Automatic annotation (TrEMBL):
Location of region: Disordered: 1-35
InterPro entries noted in UniProt: FAS1-like_DH_region, HotDog_dom_sf
Pfam families (UniProt xref): FAS1_DH_region
Protein name, per record: FAS1-like dehydratase domain-containing protein
Lineage: Bacteria, Bacillati, Actinomycetota, Actinomycetes, Mycobacteriales
Residue ranges occupied by any FAS1-like dehydratase domain in the UniProt entry: 35-171
Regions annotated as coiled coil: none
Domain of life: Bacteria
Biased composition (Basic and acidic residues): 1-17
Length: 194
């Protein structure tokens, strides 16, 4: 990515830049999946999405495949690491199903960028998870755009990188998730902490 920002960045831009490479929240330690990769969850996923690939569902077929056994759909990586939802206090957390702990990006909302919309997600798969794999994920801020003006309002595209590994530390895949944090069209642009 080409850096075409002005040489003297605003204090707000400096705070955004300081997030790059930092954990997205919590302790910064990997999040461990609550359960190993298992056949019942794979079956639920396959039926819910009508993805009846036999390497997900048919042990005999999967054993003869290049995988040598049942594997999980690779885009389930995020699903495996999702914690059980905590219902108590969900309204106070704005509908978020888990306690977030320290949010290093809270200053973005405090600066008036209260709107949020997911824009896209990209997966890079290294290998399919196998039955019994115990998956963990680390998440860091990867990129934050300069302020952009859109029909929604002025804001920043924020990308974080999730890296999924197995119990031996082997990378299974990476997911880039991008959101747009914006000020509604009624809010003045360019006032974020300047």
């Amino acid at each position: 990515m080409t850096d075409n920002r002005e040489p003297s960045a605003s204090p707000f831009r400096e705070k955004l830049d300081a997030l790059i490479g930092q954990p997205t929240g919590g302790s910064g330690k990997p999040t461990l999946a609550p359960d190993p990769v298992n056949q019942p969850m794979i079956r639920h996923w396959a039926h819910a999405l009508d993805d009846m690939n036999p390497v997900y569902l048919d042990a005999e077929f999967a054993a003869k495949s290049r995988f040598g056994g049942i594997v999980s759909p690779p885009v389930m990586l995020q699903t495996w690491t999702m914690p059980a939802p905590k219902i108590e206090g969900i309204a106070e957390r704005g509908g978020v199903p888990m306690e977030m702990g320290h949010n290093p990006a809270a200053f973005i909302e405090e600066a008036g960028f209260t709107g949020i919309v997911a824009t896209n997600s990209e997966f890079d798969i290294e290998r399919y998870p196998r039955l019994g794999d115990v998956i963990s994920v680390t998440q860091v801020f990867e990129e934050i755009s300069d302020e952009k003006k859109t029909a929604l309002g002025a804001g920043h595209f924020i990308t974080w990188l999730s890296t999924y590994t197995d119990q031996d530390g082997e990378v299974l895949g990476r997911q880039r998730f991008r959101v747009f944090r914006f000020k509604g069209s009624g809010a003045p642009a360019g006032t974020a902490g300047d």
